[in-house]
């Protein structure tokens, strides 16, 4: 029985992953795949914010780096030898820039997608954490870093096509167009696998003593330091891991949306990522994924119907979650939120005074019998 | 040499706007430890206020006063942004006291709402909004008082707000059918504020050509600085603000109304953002995204300047402003034509506004490696309490 | 000038030599000299603002002295990061109990227990049986066995104080720096805490900072009085209490605020 309970969610997930492609139209499936891939970056944010207490407003950097890595690879993939990606011609670039060269290799790209963001995150994080910069200072520094990367990528036409970004859907993998329905279905499955893997990774990280140390950093960092721990090492490591997850997420998102551009590093997008986690429930892993999928689904629905109201809704959501639902939907659910609502409308659950006695089936049966003896209208 | 002064002067003007913009943010951050992400949008409100005042003075009976409309706009912008900030403090920030990261997110939410507000505000919209808020506030008085203590009272409160909101939306939509009422006041377009004639010329000073608009900004900043300095050092409420900044619980014990102090500080800080918004209209057009262009720079000023000292804010803002301008405008190349080729290339690489930001930020991060608490850190045992 | 105190025959374990700390011109510590012998139990008292907490901050590396030196087992501690000082064997209990509120007492102790504290070790390794046993022992010592799996945040004030002391013991340090261990405890709890601290001396060197004079008397150990950042006098509780300077400092004849 216990075994079934642990395996059932996974079985359901696998079943859903197999059935959904058959019943959803390709457009909706593609959207779902994209939103799921955003769940991975949300998991990373949950790790650093929900567990370790560091609010990064710059995850877009790592997200976009992952996206650019795969984007560059796909740009090069279907070129004849000696050919250059088309956009270079516009700026009069005759030779492939040096840093593009290694992206011809799939293995290198596959590594780069997560190692590069992890490295950047590690170095940035180390420089900040080393100086014990935390709290809002950390948040606004990450935001500034994000803006810097955004400006850099936006301004460098000759290196990475600037504002226009890199298109990926016209490239071919194994002779199949990346933008084709069949390929998108495969990418959907790949995303599902990666989300599960990311979830398992986070669970492994947060379950044991390592996770305890993260929570200790969040709750009382100086105390941990005086116990002989070096919080800088932990924070740097976990920030790098979150960076790597953002990179993978960005790569998956890029191949499913067909383009990577500096917009992935826009300031609002990175803050949105945080709100997915806040709405889902920080400190709960499943909440991060749920939040990412739900909010983005809502966003796409609202934007299709009433685009001008989305900012109102989103702003309201920020306010609502922060003031009324600090633990997010999953946290609210786990803390008995629905029970409270039910209690408000008049069906309060009986709180057992003496659980050993009151919950005894024999005692309950007796009470039932006693009740039915009373005349209708209740006790005197 | 003239070129050097020219560059420095322009950098100073940019830096002055940054001083004005960051001043309010720094005062609030120093007092409450709160970073107000909507600060840029409060600036935007100030800028839109200037636009409205300008329109009022353009035609009609007040047209004769057009040359001095900006002097009317300054206090008005202070008031509009200040009151908006006060409302923000009373409704949102107060509830999140001691949770700075949540405050950050909540104020970001507010900034989104404000941005969309100026895009879609129209007469119909305002009527709907006012009716919805009035209904929501009045609803509890319409119920029998016995309803106030029920189990389901919270649900009722939520429901009444939802219903008021819906009524407001329906009303706004209905009124939207009337063309005049549906016309957006500002729309999403960028608007140009016409400066009075005397702010469009320039003055020759020591062989340097100084646009009067920029001189005006520098002067405005200086006046604002003196005023804030006087307020904090000499006025009763200023002394209270400083007392709360240094030790909140002690001040509370001594009978200083800390809540009022918070509200007042927020009002003043937000009002300063409004004044900064007036200054910004002299440099470029006004749009819903105006705030976003300044806010990250303001944050950098706060990080670099440290908390609790006006001087830190001023030095950091001017430093960032001048440096960004000098690098971004590429005037270094003009100043020093005989530069070695390698350096020349490097400086050309960074000689755009956005690339200058890249370099300045890198320099800030390097600086923080040596002085993590900023230029003028507070010392003592309480700092990390 | 220092009152009679037995000069230790062994080399001191921890020594502060002429330590001064200045905060923006205010001297929180002023030429402070103090030495602790191995296995010693020492109480430090002093009026508010005497520099007691700063003194602990200096030893544990949180504050770097403006002048002077801190020597631990023949090695200077200046410029060494807090976590390294802690690993060298100096444990600290804070004034208000600071435990990890969202973790259970057992997990609190598992984090503190002696062993490698590197992230990779925490991820890939697990506690060995000796460490597990130590955690269990310590839970028993401070009487928290029954509450081992509750959230530490829901413990009573006294239980938190003890949990923090247990965390300190789990580190197995040479020196325990204990800041106000009985603040807010009941009489019975105070007594038990005193007994616990006395029993630790000998194996460990214990330095207790306390305001509660009865408690200090109970500890029955040498007392150091701090005033305005330097040592006013040292000696047994009796000698210290009869010292006119101490009386002056505590009762405030002059400008003592």
From TrEMBL, chain A:
<dbReference type="InterPro" id="IPR017778">
    <property type="entry name" value="ABC_transptr_urea_perm_UrtC"/>
</dbReference>
<dbReference type="Pfam" id="PF02653">
    <property type="entry name" value="BPD_transp_2"/>
</dbReference>
<feature type="transmembrane region" description="Helical">
    <location>
        <begin position="273"/>
        <end position="298"/>
    </location>
</feature>
<keyword id="KW-0472">Membrane</keyword>
<dbReference type="GO" id="GO:0005886">
    <property type="term" value="C:plasma membrane"/>
</dbReference>
<feature type="transmembrane region" description="Helical">
    <location>
        <begin position="233"/>
        <end position="253"/>
    </location>
</feature>
<dbReference type="InterPro" id="IPR001851">
    <property type="entry name" value="ABC_transp_permease"/>
</dbReference>
<keyword id="KW-1133">Transmembrane helix</keyword>
<feature type="transmembrane region" description="Helical">
    <location>
        <begin position="136"/>
        <end position="153"/>
    </location>
</feature>
<feature type="transmembrane region" description="Helical">
    <location>
        <begin position="31"/>
        <end position="49"/>
    </location>
</feature>
<feature type="transmembrane region" description="Helical">
    <location>
        <begin position="61"/>
        <end position="80"/>
    </location>
</feature>
<dbReference type="GO" id="GO:0015658">
    <property type="term" value="F:branched-chain amino acid transmembrane transporter activity"/>
</dbReference>
<keyword id="KW-0812">Transmembrane</keyword>
<protein>
    <submittedName>
        <fullName>Urea ABC transporter permease subunit UrtC</fullName>
    </submittedName>
</protein>
<keyword id="KW-1003">Cell membrane</keyword>
<feature type="transmembrane region" description="Helical">
    <location>
        <begin position="106"/>
        <end position="129"/>
    </location>
</feature>
<feature type="transmembrane region" description="Helical">
    <location>
        <begin position="187"/>
        <end position="206"/>
    </location>
</feature>
<dbReference type="InterPro" id="IPR043428">
    <property type="entry name" value="LivM-like"/>
</dbReference>
<feature type="transmembrane region" description="Helical">
    <location>
        <begin position="310"/>
        <end position="333"/>
    </location>
</feature>
From TrEMBL, chain B:
<keyword id="KW-0472">Membrane</keyword>
<dbReference type="Pfam" id="PF02653">
    <property type="entry name" value="BPD_transp_2"/>
</dbReference>
<dbReference type="GO" id="GO:0005886">
    <property type="term" value="C:plasma membrane"/>
</dbReference>
<protein>
    <submittedName>
        <fullName>Urea ABC transporter permease subunit UrtB</fullName>
    </submittedName>
</protein>
<comment type="similarity">
    <text>Belongs to the binding-protein-dependent transport system permease family. LivHM subfamily.</text>
</comment>
<keyword id="KW-0029">Amino-acid transport</keyword>
<feature type="transmembrane region" description="Helical">
    <location>
        <begin position="314"/>
        <end position="335"/>
    </location>
</feature>
<feature type="transmembrane region" description="Helical">
    <location>
        <begin position="264"/>
        <end position="284"/>
    </location>
</feature>
<dbReference type="InterPro" id="IPR001851">
    <property type="entry name" value="ABC_transp_permease"/>
</dbReference>
<feature type="transmembrane region" description="Helical">
    <location>
        <begin position="124"/>
        <end position="143"/>
    </location>
</feature>
<feature type="transmembrane region" description="Helical">
    <location>
        <begin position="100"/>
        <end position="118"/>
    </location>
</feature>
<feature type="transmembrane region" description="Helical">
    <location>
        <begin position="347"/>
        <end position="370"/>
    </location>
</feature>
<feature type="transmembrane region" description="Helical">
    <location>
        <begin position="290"/>
        <end position="307"/>
    </location>
</feature>
<keyword id="KW-0812">Transmembrane</keyword>
<feature type="transmembrane region" description="Helical">
    <location>
        <begin position="155"/>
        <end position="175"/>
    </location>
</feature>
<keyword id="KW-1003">Cell membrane</keyword>
<keyword id="KW-1133">Transmembrane helix</keyword>
<dbReference type="InterPro" id="IPR017779">
    <property type="entry name" value="ABC_UrtB_bac"/>
</dbReference>
<feature type="transmembrane region" description="Helical">
    <location>
        <begin position="12"/>
        <end position="35"/>
    </location>
</feature>
<dbReference type="GO" id="GO:0022857">
    <property type="term" value="F:transmembrane transporter activity"/>
</dbReference>
<keyword id="KW-0813">Transport</keyword>
<feature type="transmembrane region" description="Helical">
    <location>
        <begin position="66"/>
        <end position="88"/>
    </location>
</feature>
């Amino acid at each position: 029985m216990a075994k079934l309970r642990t395996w059932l969610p996974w079985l359901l997930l696998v079943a859903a992953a197999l059935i959904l492609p058959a019943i959803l139209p390709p457009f909706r499936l593609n959207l779902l795949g994209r939103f799921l891939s955003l769940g991975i970056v949300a998991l990373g944010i949950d790790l650093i914010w929900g567990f370790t207490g560091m609010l990064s407003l710059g995850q877009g950097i790592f997200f976009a780096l992952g996206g650019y890595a795969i984007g560059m690879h796909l740009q090069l993939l279907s070129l004849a030898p000696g050919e250059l990606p088309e956009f270079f011609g516009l700026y009069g670039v005759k030779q492939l820039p040096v840093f593009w060269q290694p992206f011809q290799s799939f293995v290198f790209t596959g590594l780069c997608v997560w190692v590069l963001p992890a490295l950047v995150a590690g170095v940035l994080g180390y420089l900040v954490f080393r100086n014990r910069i935390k709290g809002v200072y950390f948040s606004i520094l990450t935001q500034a870093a994000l803006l810097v990367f955004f400006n850099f990528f936006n301004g460098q036409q000759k290196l990475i096509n600037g504002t226009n970004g890199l298109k990926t859907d016209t490239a071919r993998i194994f002779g199949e167009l990346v933008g084709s329905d069949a390929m998108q279905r495969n990418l959907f499955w790949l995303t599902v696998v990666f989300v599960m893997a990311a979830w398992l990774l986070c669970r492994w990280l947060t379950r044991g003593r390592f996770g305890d140390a993260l929570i200790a950093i969040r709750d009382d960092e100086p105390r941990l330091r005086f116990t002989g721990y070096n919080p800088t090492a932990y924070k740097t490591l976990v920030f790098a891991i979150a960076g790597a997850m953002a990179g993978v997420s960005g790569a998956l998102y890029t191949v499913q949306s067909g383009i990577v551009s500096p917009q992935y590093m826009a300031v609002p997008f990175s803050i949105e990522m945080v709100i997915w986690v806040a709405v889902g429930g920080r400190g709960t892993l499943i909440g991060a994924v749920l939040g990412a999928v739900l909010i983005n689904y809502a966003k796409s629905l609202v934007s299709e119907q009433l685009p001008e109201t989305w900012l109102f809704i989103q702003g309201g959501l920020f306010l609502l979650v922060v003031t009324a639902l600090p633990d997010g939907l999953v946290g609210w659910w786990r803390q008995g939120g629905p029970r409270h609502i039910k209690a408000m409308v008049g069906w309060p659950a009986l709180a057992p005074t003496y659980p050993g006695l009151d919950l005894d089936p024999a005692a309950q049966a007796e009470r039932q019998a006693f009740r039915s003896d009373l005349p209708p209208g209740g006790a005197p | 040499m003239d070129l050097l002064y020219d560059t420095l002067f322009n950098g100073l003007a940019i830096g002055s706007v940054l001083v004005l913009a960051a001043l309010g943010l720094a005062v609030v951050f120093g007092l409450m430890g709160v970073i107000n992400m909507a600060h840029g949008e409060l600036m935007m409100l100030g800028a839109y206020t200037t636009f409205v005042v300008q329109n009022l003075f353009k035609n009609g009976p007040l047209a004769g006063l057009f040359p001095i409309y900006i002097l009317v706009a300054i206090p008005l912008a202070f008031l509009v942004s200040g009151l908006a900030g006060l409302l923000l403090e009373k409704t949102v920030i107060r509830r999140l006291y001691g949770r700075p990261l949540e405050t950050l997110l909540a104020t970001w939410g507010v900034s989104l709402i404000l941005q969309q507000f100026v895009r879609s505000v129209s007469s119909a919209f305002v009527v709907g909004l006012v009716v919805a808020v009035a209904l929501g506030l009045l609803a509890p008085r319409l119920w029998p008082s016995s309803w106030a203590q029920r189990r389901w009272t919270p649900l009722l409160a939520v429901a009444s707000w939802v219903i008021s909101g819906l009524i407001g939306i329906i009303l706004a939509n209905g009124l939207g059918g009337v063309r005049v009422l549906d016309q957006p006041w500002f729309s999403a377009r960028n608007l140009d504020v016409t400066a009075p004639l005397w702010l469009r010329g320039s003055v020759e000073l020591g062989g340097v050509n100084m646009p009067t608009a920029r001189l005006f900004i520098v002067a405005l900043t200086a006046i604002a600085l003196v005023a804030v300095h006087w307020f904090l050092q000499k006025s009763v409420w200023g002394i209270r603000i400083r007392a709360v900044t240094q030790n909140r619980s002690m001040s509370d014990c001594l009978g200083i109304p800390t809540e009022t102090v918070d509200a007042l500080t927020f009002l003043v800080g937000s009002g300063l953002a409004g004044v900064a918004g007036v200054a910004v209209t002299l440099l470029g057009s006004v749009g819903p995204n105006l705030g976003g262009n300044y806010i990250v720079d303001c944050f950098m000023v706060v990080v670099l300047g440290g908390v609790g000292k006006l001087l830190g804010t001023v030095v950091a803002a001017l430093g960032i402003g001048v440096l960004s301008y000098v690098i971004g405008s590429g005037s270094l190349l003009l100043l020093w034509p005989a530069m070695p080729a390698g350096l020349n290339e490097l400086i050309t690489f960074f000689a755009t506004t956005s690339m200058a930001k890249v370099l300045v930020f890198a320099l800030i991060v390097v600086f923080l490696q040596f002085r993590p608490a900023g230029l003028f850190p507070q010392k003592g045992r309480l700092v990390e309490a | 000038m220092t009152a009679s105190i037995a000069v230790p025959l062994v080399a001191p374990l921890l020594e502060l030599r002429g330590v001064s700390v200045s905060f923006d011109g205010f001297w929180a510590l002023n030429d402070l000299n103090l030495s602790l012998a191995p296995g010693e139990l020492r109480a430090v008292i002093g009026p508010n603002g005497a520099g007691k907490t700063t003194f602990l901050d200096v030893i544990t590396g949180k504050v770097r002295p403006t002048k002077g030196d801190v020597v631990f087992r023949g090695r200077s501690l200046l410029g060494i990061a807090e976590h390294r000082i802690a690993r060298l064997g100096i444990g600290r209990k804070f004034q208000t109990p600071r435990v990890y509120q969202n973790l259970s007492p057992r997990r609190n102790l598992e984090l503190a227990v002696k062993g490698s504290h590197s992230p990779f070790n925490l991820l890939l390794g697990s506690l060995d049986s000796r460490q597990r046993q130590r955690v269990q022992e310590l839970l028993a010592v401070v009487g928290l066995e029954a509450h081992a799996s509750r959230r530490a945040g829901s413990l009573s004030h006294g239980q938190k104080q003890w949990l923090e002391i247990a965390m300190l013991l789990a580190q197995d340090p040479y020196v325990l720096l204990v800041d106000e261990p009985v603040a807010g405890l009941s009489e019975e709890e105070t007594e038990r805490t005193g007994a616990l601290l006395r029993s630790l001396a000998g194996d460990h060197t214990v330095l207790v900072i306390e305001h509660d004079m009865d408690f200090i008397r109970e500890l029955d150990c040498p007392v150091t009085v701090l005033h305005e950042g330097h040592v006013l006098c040292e000696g047994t509780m009796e000698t210290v209490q009869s010292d006119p300077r101490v009386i002056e400092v505590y009762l405030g004849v002059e400008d003592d605020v």
